[in-house]
Amino acid sequence: QVQLVESGGGLVQAGGSLRLSCAASGRTFSNYAGGWFRQAPGKERQFVGAIGRSEASTFYANAVKGRFTISRNNAKNTIYLQMNSLKPEDTAVYYCAAARGVVSDTPGAFDYWGQGTQVTVSS
């Protein structure tokens, strides 16, 4: 089992930056792929980015590519989402997730989820 807890959300002005953390506890976190998703009111949960078991394996949704960066520190059992050049369209609840399999952009591929953290970007 893996338990995930997000932190770092908040209110930021457009153009600003925010760093989300996802702290994991459980078995050998390095064996799990990680992902970030977001969900805005009235919309489906949307893929943001994912990271494989190694730091070299990352991919992102087009909407955030070049602005967001996923990283992980397995020694700290933590996945990060660095968000730069934030836009009001980025406003959503952000969820981290862990998968026993390979990285994916599909929510159903992930086995464990955090509770979410609110990110609000003002104009």
Account of the 3D structure:
The chain is mainly β. It has strands spanning 2-7, 10-13, 18-26, 33-39, 46-51, 58-60, 68-73, 78-83, 92-99, 112-113, 117-122. The strands form two sheets. Strands 2, 4, 5, 6, 9, 10 and 11 form a seven-stranded mixed β-sheet that branches. The relative contact order is 0.32.
Number of strands: 11
Biggest sheet character = 7 strands, mixed
**Radius of gyration, in angstroms, nearest whole number:** 13 Å
- What form results from the Cα inertia axes? globular
Proportion in helices? under 10%
Assembly classification: single chain
Order of helices and strands: EEEEEEEEEEE
Q: How large is the share of residues in beta strands?
A: over 45%
- Low-pLDDT parts are none
Count up the helices: 0
- Gap between N and C termini, in Å? 40 Å
On the 0-100 scale, what is the average pLDDT? 94
Class from secondary-structure proportions: mainly beta
